[in-house]
Amino acid sequence: MAFDRIDRQILRLLQEDGRMTNVDLAERVGLTAPPCLRRVRALEEEGAIRGYHAALDPVTLGYSITVFAMVSLRSQAESDLAAFEEHVRAIPEVRECHMLNGEIDFILKIVATDLRAFQELLTSRLTAAPNVASVKTSLTIRTAKNDPGIPVAG
Amino acid sequence: MAFDRIDRQILRLLQEDGRMTNVDLAERVGLTAPPCLRRVRALEEEGAIRGYHAALDPVTLGYSITVFAMVSLRSQAESDLAAFEEHVRAIPEVRECHMLNGEIDFILKIVATDLRAFQELLTSRLTAAPNVASVKTSLTIRTAKNDPGIPVAG
DNA sequence: GTTGAAACCTCAGATCC
DNA sequence: GGATCTGAGGTTTCAAC
């Protein structure tokens, strides 16, 4: 999987605007439509492009709260780690769950409609989960940067 | 801005698949194409839909490292907070920067191609930034869940 | 093996009801 | 919200480099 300059341009442009038409995209990268479309399909099949998503505005849709939760478990046996991951995967308000090195085991990004809903989620579904030793939460005051994806040169 | 059941369906479907054609979308929500397109345009103009993005695979594109950095500043005066935000906004590897309540001032999500590149970024551009008191970093071992966006009923 | 040209067919967008 | 229409874009086929 080696990406040439045109592939990287395609990836960068589609990361910026996922609904760009193929003819626009082709023009921007200096190709005609058919070879451009073939490259896009190839990038999708190779897994370089995982999907396309509309970015919704949380606040407009009623999700005014974003919280980061640092979770430590009592047991770090693989089966216990996996069980916790499975548990949070089923909670729609938990959008991200990353296992970390160091003192804390997981960091979670959680969204909620308001503080009350978050407290309810925290106490009844997170702190109360099996094997959870401690949960430290931090409310997001404001978000200065929130770019999905990764840097792409080209 | 009140969203009815069809609006929420549209939002949910476009969050799942941002390249769905309007005719597909219309069929799924039980409308014909023109009114469906009018709703989508309205949702875009109201700001409920902020944009569309291809989700790229970090590992395939050479970004094998994801790190969370907890940053504390020496001064929390608004001008100093804003200066720090401006500083990290210009670093492409810093994808997210959220101001938090509590002991730490900011949490950053950072991607890097490898550990060496991350260490370089950390020491030369983050720890060395003006007004930074401490930076604690945690490497992501694995990511159990990473859903962009928010829960949408419908 | 990848590009480009042409054909076809579906979709987006505008208009009107 | 739905029906109709037109022009534009997506997609396939095939020839050429």
Structural commentary:
The structure is a homodimer of 154-residue chains. Chain A is α+β, with helices and mostly antiparallel strands and 154 residues long. Chain A folds into 2 domains: 41 residues, Winged helix-like DNA-binding domain superfamily/Winged helix DNA-binding domain (Arc Repressor Mutant, subunit A, Orthogonal Bundle), CATH 1.10.10.10; 75 residues, Alpha-Beta Plaits. Helix content of chain A is 38%, strand content 30%. The first copy, chain A, is built from 5 helices and 5 strands; from the N terminus they run H-H-H-E-E-H-E-E-H-E. A 4-stranded antiparallel sheet of chain A has the order 3-4-2-5. In chain A, strand 3 and strand 4 form a beta hairpin. The longest helix of chain A has 14 residues. Chain A is elongated. The two termini of chain A are 17 Å apart. At the A-B interface, helix 1, strand 1, helix 4, strand 3 and strand 4 of A face helix 1, strand 1, helix 4, strand 3 and strand 4 of B. The structure holds a DNA duplex (17 and 17 nucleotides). Chains A, B: InterPro entries: ArsR-like_HTH (IPR011991), AsnC-type_HTH_dom (IPR000485), Dimeric_a/b-barrel (IPR011008), Tscrpt_reg_AsnC-like (IPR019888), Tscrpt_reg_AsnC/Lrp_C (IPR019887), Tscrpt_reg_HTH_AsnC-type_CS (IPR019885), WH-like_DNA-bd_sf (IPR036388), WH_DNA-bd_sf (IPR036390). Chains A, B: GO terms for molecular function: DNA binding.
